[in-house]
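Following up on my earlier thread - several people asked me to post the actual chain instead of describing it. Fair enough. Here it is, all 144 residues.
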Amino acid sequence: MSNQQEGGEIGPVEASILLTLIRLNGKCLQKDLWKMAGTNSKVGIPALNKLIKMGLVTKRRVSEKVYEIKLTRKGLREAKRLEAKASVIPEVDLNLLATIPCFYCPYITSCGVGHENSPETCEMLGSWLYNLAKLKDMVNLEAQ
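Reply from S.P.:
Thanks for posting it. Predicted structure:
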């Protein structure tokens, strides 16, 4: 079946949500989904509702104001189809790239391996990497 499903075409936001879910073993908490899919709730919620209407994902309340989003079998097939069709260029989350502390560091022009200001000793970069790893671990745990 093509991407013309009941409920309409799968647009870029819907595709991003499906591809994100497949990377996260088919499920994710809604509150984490927006950042992982590179969107926000204002754009993501209508896209998510469209995917629910199309029967590609389900939404289950796990506690007050916390929802788990999960691919259905049909959604998994569609996500795999989109994944196979995706470009060979690796997907880059531009929102994530914009948070790298090096881009706004006042020492960027004098930073380098072996210099006084160095990526190996940078507290801002170390903190950013630590938080990124924590976020990845949290998402992986929630996806299990």
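The first strand starts at residue 4 and ends at 5. That should answer part of your original question.
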